C-alpha cells in the first residue's frame, strides 16, 4: 500500500478504535499513562507495518495486541528500577479485579475513572476528551479556549492524581452514580460537539465517529439512570442535532447553515425520538420538576426541528427558552446564541449591541466574530462585516466552516 492509503487507514482506525484500545489497556494495567503511551506507540507502529504488510482484517485487535506488547516492554524496562511484584501482577493478571457492573462497557468505565470527583471539573472533561475521545491536546485546548501548554499540564496533573489516589477501574456504585454523572454528561457533550463541528483543520468538518460514540454512551447512561432528566435531555439534544447531519455539509465540503439546509434530508426517525424525550421532560416540568441545562437546550432544538422552513421558526419560543437557559448557565456563549434569537425578533441592531458587549470575553472565539459579521452584513455595514469575517476565518479551525465563512464574506459588495 502507498503512504497515503496507509495514513488514511490509520486515521480511520484511530477514529474507530482509539477509545477501545486505551480502555482495554487501562483495564489490564490500571495506569492511564501506560495505556495512552502504549496505544499511541501502537498507532505509530501501524503506519510502518501496514505499509509493508497491508491493513490487517481486524485493525482494532491488531492495535490492542501491539499496544499490550508495547506496555509490557515498558514495564519490563521499568521493573529494573521498580517493584517487580507489581510488574508481575500487571503482566500476568489480565482479569479485572472488580465484578462487572450493570453495564459492562470498557469505554464507559474509563469515562467514570476520568470523571472521578477527586478531579476538578475542567480536568475531568479534558482528560476524558483525550483518553476516550482521542482528541489531540490542541483540539481540546481550542474547545476550552486556552493555550495548548496549559491544557497539556492540566491533563498530566489529572492523570497523576488518579494514579496517586489509586482510583479503581470500575463503575461507581448505584449510590455514587448521581454525584458522578454531571461530569460525565459534560464530557459526552463536548465529545459530541467536537464531532458535530471538528475543531482541527486537517479533519473532516463533521466526525460521525465521535457523535455516534457520544450518543451510544449516553444511551448506556440513560439505561443506568432512566429517571435522570438531564441524561434524557442530553440524549434528546444529541439526537436532534445529529438528525441534521445529512444536510450540514455540501458536496464540496462546505458547511451549510441551518437557514440553508435541505430539511427534507434530516433524519425523521432521530427527530421523532428526540421530540418524544423532550415531551417527557416537559411533562415532568409541568409536574413541578425544574428542567436543567441540557433539557432546555433540547427544547430549543425541538423548536428548530419542528419548523418545516426557517421562516416558520417560533423565535419567540426560542428566545423564551434562552432566557430560561441564561438563568441556569449565564455563560458568554449562551448569551451569544441568545443574541441570534434577539436579532430575529428585535432586529440586528439590538442584537449587535448585545454581541458587542461580549467582545472582551469572546475575542478569541471564531463564532463571536462570525455572528457579528452576519449582523453587520444585515445592517448594510459591509466594510465592518468583511473585517469581522476575516477575523472569524483566521480563528476557525474547521475547513468546512472556513469555506462557508469565506463564501459569505466574498458575497459582500
From TrEMBL:
Residues spanning the signal sequence: none
Biased composition (Basic and acidic residues): 78-88
Keyword match Protease: no
Molecular function terms, GO-annotated: DNA binding; sigma factor activity
Disordered: annotated span: 78-98
Record InterPro entries: DUF6596 (IPR046531), RNA_pol_sigma70_r2 (IPR007627), RNA_pol_sigma70_r4_t2 (IPR013249), RNA_pol_sigma_r2 (IPR013325), RNA_pol_sigma_r3/r4-like (IPR013324), TPR-like_helical_dom_sf (IPR011990), WH-like_DNA-bd_sf (IPR036388)
Residues annotated as domain RNA polymerase sigma factor 70 region 4 type: 111-162
Domain RNA polymerase sigma-70 region: 20-80
Keyword Transcription attached: yes
Keywords: Sigma factor, Transcription, Transcription regulation
Gene Ontology biological-process annotations: DNA-templated transcription initiation
Pfam families: DUF6596, Sigma70_r2, Sigma70_r4_2
Domain DUF6596: 180-280
Family (UniProt): Belongs to the sigma-70 factor family. ECF subfamily.
Full protein name: RNA polymerase sigma factor
Amino acid at each position: 500500500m502507498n503512504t497515503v492509503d496507509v495514513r488514511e487507514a490509520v486515521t480511520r482506525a484511530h477514529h474507530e478504535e482509539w477509545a477501545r484500545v486505551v480502555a482495554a489497556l487501562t483495564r489490564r494495567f490500571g495506569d492511564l499513562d501506560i495505556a495512552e503511551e502504549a496505544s499511541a506507540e501502537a498507532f505509530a507502529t501501524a503506519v510502518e507495518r501496514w505499509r509493508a504488510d497491508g491493513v490487517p482484517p481486524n485493525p482494532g485487535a491488531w492495535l490492542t495486541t501491539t499496544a499490550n506488547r508495547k506496555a509490557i516492554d515498558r514495564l519490563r524496562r521499568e521493573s529494573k528500577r521498580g517493584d517487580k511484584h507489581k510488574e508481575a501482577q500487571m503482566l500476568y493478571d489480565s482479569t479485572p479485579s472488580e465484578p462487572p457492573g450493570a453495564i459492562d462497557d470498557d469505554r464507559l468505565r474509563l469515562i467514570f475513572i476520568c470523571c472521578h470527583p477527586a478531579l476538578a471539573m475542567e480536568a475531568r472533561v479534558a482528560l476524558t476528551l483525550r483518553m476516550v475521545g482521542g482528541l489531540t491536546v490542541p483540539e481540546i485546548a481550542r474547545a476550552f479556549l486556552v493555550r495548548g501548554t496549559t491544557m497539556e499540564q492540566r491533563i498530566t496533573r489529572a492523570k497523576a492524581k488518579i494514579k496517586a489516589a489509586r482510583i479503581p477501574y470500575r463503575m461507581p456504585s448505584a449510590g455514587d452514580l448521581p454525584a458522578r454523572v454531571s461530569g460525565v454528561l459534560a464530557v459526552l457533550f463536548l465529545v459530541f460537539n467536537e464531532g458535530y463541528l471538528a475543531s482541527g483543520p486537517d479533519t473532516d468538518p463533521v466526525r460521525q465517529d465521535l457523535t455516534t460514540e457520544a450518543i451510544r454512551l449516553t444511551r448506556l447512561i440513560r439505561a443506568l439512570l432512566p429517571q435522570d432528566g438531564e441524561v434524557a435531555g442530553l440524549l434528546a439534544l444529541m439526537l436532534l442535532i445529529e438528525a441534521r447531519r445529512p444536510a450540514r455539509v455540501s458536496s464540496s465540503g462546505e458547511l451549510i447553515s441551518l437557514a440553508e439546509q435541505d430539511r427534507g434530508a434530516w433524519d425523521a426517525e432521530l427527530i421523532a425520538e428526540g421530540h418524544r424525550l423532550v415531551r417527557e421532560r416537559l411533562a415532568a416540568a409541568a409536574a413541578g420538576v425544574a428542567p436543567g441545562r441540557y433539557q432546555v437546550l433540547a427544547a430549543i432544538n425541538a423548536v428548530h426541528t419542528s419548523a418545516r422552513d426557517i421562516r416558520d421558526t417560533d423565535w419567540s419560543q426560542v428566545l423564551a427558552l434562552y432566557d430560561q437557559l441564561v438563568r441556569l448557565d449565564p455563560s458568554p456563549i449562551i448569551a451569544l446564541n441568545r443574541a441570534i434569537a434577539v436579532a430575529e425578533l428585535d432586529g440586528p441592531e439590538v442584537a449587535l449591541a448585545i454581541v458587542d458587549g461580549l467582545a472582551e470575553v469572546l475575542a478569541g472565539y471564531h463564532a463571536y466574530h462570525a455572528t457579528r459579521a452576519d449582523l453587520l452584513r444585515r445592517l448594510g455595514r459591509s466594510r465592518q462585516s468583511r473585517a469581522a469575517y476575516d477575523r472569524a476565518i483566521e480563528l476557525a479551525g474547521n475547513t468546512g466552516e472556513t469555506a462557508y465563512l469565506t463564501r459569505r464574506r466574498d458575497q459582500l459588495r
